[in-house]
Each structure stands twice: as C-alpha cells, then as structure tokens.
Amino acid sequence: MARRSALNDRAENDRVVMADLPEGDAPKTRDLLDFLGVVGTEGKVLLLTDGRNQRLYLSARNVSHVSVLPFGEESAYDILWAETVVIERSALEGGAQAKAKEEKPEPETEATEEDEPDA
C-alpha cells in the first residue's frame, strides 16, 4: 500500500518515466549516464528493471545518485528516495500480461469416453 502510494505520488508529479533501458554487451557507466541524460532525469534516479539486470547494476554501482532494482522488489523508501523513477517498459508489460493470465480462468474440459484409458 505504501509502495503504491509513493509511486502514485511520483507519477502525479511527472516523476515516473517508462523507457526501454539501454542494452549492450559490457557494463558501461558512460552509456548509462548518456541514457539518463536523454531521458531527462535529474537528481536521484531509481531504475526498475524487468527482472535482474546484472549488466545495468554493474554500470550504475559507482554512481551515487542511481539505484537499480528489479520491478516489484522496490520499497516505498526506494521510491521516495528517488526524484525520478525510470521503469523498464517490458517490466510493466510483463506484469500486465501475468496479471491478465492470473485473472483469466482456464477453460474447464470434461473427460469423454475417448480420453479414458482402455482397460
């Protein structure tokens, strides 16, 4: 509940950005900082990724104003700490697909004589 309220507060103040995070073979802090400049973030930034992203974590580990966490593992404190929250687009899409799958019941099938094994 607190996490949702904190995220809503950031969204109401236009401090939530949805983006495709930079990809690459090796962790590079410069690439991450360039990306944050393009996105237009200022101050402390929380990057919420689609699952664990070791390369992005390594790129950000020596930048004091950037924190990287998998989407769904952030706390209310993490969100309130950041001036801007950047959410990886696939993290939201994956969460929406998973939620839709949970809400959609599996169709029930009845066993027929053909399905029963021969004795």
TrEMBL record:
InterPro entries: Ribosomal_uL4, Ribosomal_uL4-like, Ribosomal_uL4_dom_sf
Pfam families in the record: Ribosomal_L4
GO CC annotations on file: ribonucleoprotein complex; ribosome
Presence of keyword Disulfide bond: no
Keywords: Ribonucleoprotein, Ribosomal protein
An individual GO BP term: translation
Extent of the signal sequence: none
Residue spans of biased composition, Acidic residues class: 108-119
Location of the region described as Disordered in the Swiss-Prot/TrEMBL record: 92-119
A GO molecular-function descriptor: structural constituent of ribosome
Protein family per UniProt: Belongs to the universal ribosomal protein uL4 family.
The protein's name in its UniProt record: 50S ribosomal protein L4
Organism: marine metagenome
